[in-house]
Amino acid sequence: NQGFAGAAVQQMAGSGGSRDGIVIVDHGSRRAESNSMLEEFVEMYKRKTGHEIVQAAHMELAAPSIEDAFDRCVELGAQRVIVSPYFLFPGRHWNKDIPALAAAASAKHPGIRYLVTAPIGLHELMVDVLEDRMKYCVSRAEGRADECDMCVGTGRCR
């Protein structure tokens, strides 16, 4: 069973996936270091998936905006823009804010299709991610590991 993620990737690849632009959007923060983590994630995503047109965006509080990222995808040749919220669960931002911002961004680009995907949600791989993070932090607390990539230099890994 490939689940929804496997089916979506196959569909993207089978429907001109190289012409898809992907906007990965988080909430946005006043803290630059929080915003830079999305940039790092986008680079990881590009390396792992091979997608060429991938842009980071922040829903609010920081740049680039969804509109900026959407525009950049179109400049790079996207015929469809997939706006993917980097959120765990659905809520007001996913239900209303992000779709409204994506619609506003698309208005400048007639003929460019777009869609807003579901948030990460209850995906089984998230169990593995959480378990891995907890095991590492416990190892650090017990003196068996260095600070994790999230806590390095903050003194928070104890």
UniProtKB/TrEMBL annotation:
Keywords: Lyase, Metal-binding
Highest taxon of the lineage: Eukaryota
One GO term (biological process): siroheme biosynthetic process
Gene Ontology MF term list: metal ion binding; sirohydrochlorin ferrochelatase activity
Gene3D superfamilies: 3.40.50.1400
GO cellular component, one term: chloroplast
Protein name (Swiss-Prot/TrEMBL): Sirohydrochlorin ferrochelatase
Organism encoding this protein: Selaginella moellendorffii
Lineage: Eukaryota, Viridiplantae, Streptophyta, Embryophyta, Tracheophyta
